[in-house]
Every structure is written in structure tokens, then in C-alpha cells.
Amino acid sequence: xxxxxxxxxxxxxxxxxxxxxxxxxxxxxxxxxxxxxxxxxxxxxxxxxxxxxxxxxxxxxxxxxxxxxxxxxxxxxxxxxxxxxxxxxxxxxxxxxxxxxxxxxxxxxxxxxxxxxxxxxxxxxxxxxxxxxxxxxxxxxxxxxxxxxxxxxxxxxxxxxxxxxxxxxxxxxxxxxxxxxxxxxxxxxxxxxxxxxxxxxxxxxxxxxxxxxxxxxxxxxxxxxxxxxxxxxxxxxxxxxxxxxxxxxxxxxxxxxxxxxxxxxxxxxxxxxxxxxxxxxxxxxxxxxxxx
Length: 292
Known about the structure:
This protein is of the alpha+beta class. The chain has three domains: 6-72 and 127-149, 2-Layer Sandwich (Ribosomal Protein S5, domain 2), CATH 3.30.230.10; 83-116; 151-288, no CATH class. The protein has nine helices and six strands; from the N terminus they run βββαβαβααβααααα. The protein has a four-stranded mixed β-sheet with strand order 1-2-4-3. It has a two-stranded antiparallel ribbon with strand order 5-6. Helix 1 (46-54) crosses helix 5 (127-194) and helix 8 (244-264) packs antiparallel against helix 9. The chain is elongated, with a radius of gyration of 36 Å. The termini are close together.
């Protein structure tokens, strides 16, 4: 089991060229979301890097920052100055300045900005960075995975402890259920007695009313579902898959059963136990949101 949060960094270099990739991940209910901070000249690598990430992650919101450094040799390949074109550009700039009545001389920066003076080689020098980027990303993903596994283990331990707490609460509610039903029957008898009605303990009318109120407040079905959901919950915590979505669903279902149970009972002790159960479920659902 893995957390969806973590950080990873990777760096790959060859022949003086270097690429660094940094990953920071936070939780997300959707499939893996990626936001790239990548230099424009390496933009063509983004589809390939996206695919590489998707092969490793299934959920989470991911920020991917890519930086690079080029060797001196590679830098020289980025652009070459055409001296003949530079001379023509300088002559043309002087003529423009003279025609405009200006006495200033063109600067080197002015000359280099003239189209054609520097011949750009926009693709070939960056090709070695493609392999380096994939290597650096793989390193970053491995580092991220290690951190996510460590945090996932901590989440697993916490959720198993909370599961035990919830199981004890459900058991306490179940044990209290029979006594609560008996007290409900007794309260009903007392109310009938206060009304001055003379009914025997086995009177059919009394039994019907008792059955009606006990049936309305019966929480057996909710308890059975809660125990079943909790069993599945614990099994998922020990699974090797990515159980985040399934755990999220079970958390919602357990919360719904706890709400129904709380609404049905008239017993103050069961109500208090149900409130404690819902409080623990709230903490559990917050933790589940961080699981992949």
C-alpha cells in the first residue's frame, strides 16, 4: 500500500550534459494528474515522460520540474555566427542610421539580432538530453515510490489500529442491543400503565406495539453490514494492489450505516457509541484520501 504524497529527485549526466527531474506528489481522487515545468526547447519530450509516469502511478497530483545543463561542446552546436552575414548586417545598420540622420554605430548585440547572422540548430544538440531525461525521471520515480511506500506503511498501521477501535465499538453496540430492546419494552409498559390501561404482559395488543417499536429500532442489519464492511476494509489494507478507491467506497458505506444506526436507536448508550464510531470513521476517511 502506498501513500499518494511524496517527493523524488533524479539526475542523469553524460559527456558534460546533465538533466535533473524533481517530483512532488499530493493526493487526488482522480487518476494521476501531471503538471510539467519544462523548458520550451525540451517540450517535445513531454508526451514520452507522461507515458513513463503513467506506467508507475495510478492516482495522485504530480508536479514535474525538469532542468538541464549543456556541455560547452553542445552549447557551441546551438548556434553558429555567419561572419559574412554579420558584415552585411553591420553595413546595412550603418546605412539605416545614416539615412535617419543618426551618428551612432551599430553594437554587436544589434548585429546578432539580425535574422540570419546566427544559424540556429534547434533540435540536434538537445537529442542527447532525451535519454538523460528518461533516466533522471526513472530515478525520481524510484525515490518517490520509496517515500510513498514508507508513508503507506505508516498509514496502514494507523488504519489497522483505528479498525480495531471501530470493531470494539461495533461489538459494544451489539452487546448493548439486546438490553436496549428489553428496556424499550419496559418503557412502553410503563407508559401504558401511566395511561391507566390494564393490559397483561402477554396481551396481544401490547405485544404488537412492542414488536412494532422494537422492529423500528432494530439495528441488527446495520451491525451485520458494518462488520462485513470492516472485514473487507482490513483485507484491503493487507492487499498488494492499489486499494485507495475501494477503501474510499467502504468508508462511505460504513459512514452511511453508522448514520442509519444512530438515527434508529433510542438508547442513549448506543447513541454515544454510534457517535464515537462516526468520529473514528471521519478520521479514517481523512487518512484514506492519502492512499493510492
